[in-house]
Amino acid sequence: MGVFRRPELEKDNPVAPQLYVGPRRRHKLFRDAERDPSSADDSLVDTLQTLSQAAKRFADSVPTLKNNQRERAALLKAIAEANRLLRKE
Questions:
Q1: Among residues 88, 1, 10, which one has the least CA distance to residue 45?
Q2: How far is CA 33 from CA 24, 39, 42, 51, in A?
Q3: SS3 of 62, please?
Q4: How many CA atoms within 13 Å lie on the side-chain side of 72?
Q5: pTM for the predicted model, two decimal places
Q6: What is the rounded CA–CA span in Å between residue 80 and residue 25?
Q7: Tens-of-pLDDT digits for all 89 residues of the chain?
Q8: How far is residue 16's CA from residue 30's CA, in Å, rounded to a whole number?
């Protein structure tokens, strides 16, 4: 029975805390996103602004720990650079 265990499906598993999404479901999500009519109207600037805002909210929600400080600093630097480029537009 232990051979068939899927740790990504077990509740409160610190190794895989995200919900498992199989390949069929993932491909369906991608196909649905490609067909979404609202995404065709968005400009690149709007998309980058939305992405930058979401990344900033994520960076603010993640606790500052010693082991993730380098990645968090890199993300904040990328956000600042994106905002700088968007202000030039």
A1: 88
A2: 14, 8, 13, 16
A3: coil
A4: 13
A5: 0.48
A6: 34
A7: 556 666 666 666 666 556 667 888 888 888 887 776 665 556 777 888 888 888 888 888 877 777 888 888 888 898 888 888 888 76
A8: 22
